[in-house]
Amino acid sequence: MIDELRVQNVALIREASIAPAAPGLTVLTGETGTGKSALLSSVKLLMGERADAGAVREGADSLAVEGRFYLRDGDPDGCVVRRRVEVAGRSRVEIDGAMASVRELAAGVGSTIDLCGQHEHQRLLTQANHAALIDAWAGERVSWPLAAYVEALDAAKAAADELDRVREDARTATERLDEAEFTLQRIEEVDPREGEYEELEEQLPRIEHAETLMGAAGGAHDALAGDEGAMDAVSSAVDALRDASRYDTGLGKLADSLESALIDIEDVASELRDYRDSVEYDPSELDRMQSRMATLRGLMRSYGPGMADVLARRERARRVVEAAHDGGSSVRKAQAAVEKAEAELARRADALDEARAAAAPRFAEEVNAQMATLQMGSATLEVQLGRLPRSQWTREGASRVELLYRPAAGLTPRPLRRIASGGEVSRVMLSIKVVLGEADGTDTLVFDEVDAGVGGATAVALGELLARLAETHQVIVVTHLAQVAVHADRHYLVSKTDDDVPETTIVPIEGEDRVREIARMLSGDATEASLAHAREMLSR
User: Fold this and answer.
1) DSSP track, 11-63
2) CA 472 to CA 170: how far, in whole Å?
3) Which tens digits make up the pLDDT trace of 459-508?
């Protein structure tokens, strides 16, 4: 969500900032032509959309837009994003003070915001996103079949890849057979096992230097436990201190410490004796291990560089030899596996389609109920599902899911992107978002022209619907309707000076200033009647 947005030299704005409610409803109001759209342009820049040097304020060298966002739950510090666009057209992006690309900006901040306006490229108009809307609303009723379908899709791909590999082995088996048989025979003669080389690397130095190890362990043991060794000396010291402690108890404590050390020395001496006895010097075993190591290294020089490469080379050679002599049984087996995997995939695709087909009409019904409250006449939203050719199946499903818009009962439904006006798109988006509630993955919704052509009871319903949506989202609305503005948690007034180079200002308003703005929106000026009406609406 947007915690704070700062704008410099964008269109008519010299400098402005807003701190939208999060979650909550933030409205921007003002006379037509005051520059409200400049703020929306700033939001688009932080979403990673294309920069337009023409948006730089007259007389400035560049524009800058900066925002602090909370992109995920449990992130106390947020993320600071800055976008700078020069008059020459060059654009720079920083995320938390580090240089970044516009693509990173779009993937991060841009994925959390939906900009809903007449000409905006938004998720609602992109058919590829429509299945995700149904799935989010349906929850586990679709998520479980979808997960099962994706698992089957991955299994089918793995089976197809294996079939391709087996076919390739069979195709080239004859020409590669001699080489494969030679390689397999040479490696099989040695018969290396996994982990053997590593074991030799660890054991061989101990056998090669057995005499040195035995000498070191034996000498250390004698120095500790032999005649007149350390143990005897420490034991004598303990006895002497015990005897003298009759006259000074402090010496008794020192005797205790030495006695504890003596126990440790005895343990070490015992371990040294065991180690010395365990080391064996066997010249024949040493020769065998050295010879085996040399043989394994020879294989690694030929088929390495590592022993894992040797083992993999043996497996590849074995497959080629088997393919050349199995009479096509490997291909038939792999083909049968593909057919089995495809049958299971088709079954799970059917289950996914059935789950979506069951959810789609109920989803559309709820959206249409919300649209009806916005006085959209007999306009309805419909969901169309159509099975795709197998080659077009993706991880999103085996069918095309698309939202269709029917402007009136007697008209043919068509794709929403082709028929709906900006105001209609915004109101349909609003209805969908309310129905989705917290299941929607978008944090911030920015509405422009959602109130186009709206008035009366519809305006009241629109305001109530936006307020409901703001319970689960951060909602920012540019509006001309008092019925919407009165629901705001934060209200910003956009105005413009009459200078030779006009300047747009954006300031938060509350109290009587807000009452006067609501009154202006109701009647065009602040009369006693409009002020009273504004106070009544705000009190409700």
Assistant:
1) TTEEEEEE---SSEEEEEE--TTSSHHHHHHHHHHHTTPPP-GGGBPTT-SEE
2) 59
3) 888 899 899 889 888 999 999 999 999 999 999 999 998 887 889 999 99
Partnered with residue 184 across adjacent β-strands are: none
pLDDT in tens, 89-120: 888 999 998 999 989 988 888 888 887 765 45
Which amino acid is present at 406? R
What tokens appear for 500 in the block? 């030779």
The tokens for 365 are 């019904």
| Number of Cα atoms under 13 Å in the Cβ half of residue 483 | 15
List CB contacts of 329: < 8 A, sequence separation 6 or more.
Answer: none
Task: Check the CA dihedral 121-116-2-519 and report its sign.
Answer: positive
Q: CB-side exposure of 112: number of CA atoms within 13 Å?
A: 19
CB atoms within 10 A of CB 434: 21
Residues 513/493, Cβ–Cβ less than 8 Å: yes
Exposed, middle or buried: residue 501 (CB in 10 Å: 0-12, 13-18, 19+)? exposed
The counts of H helices and E strands in the chain are 17, 15
**Distance between CA atoms of residues 56 and 45, nearest Å:** 12
Q: How far is CA 6 from CA 80, 278, 425, in A?
A: 11, 76, 28
- The phi, psi pair for 43, rounded to 5°, reads -60, -40
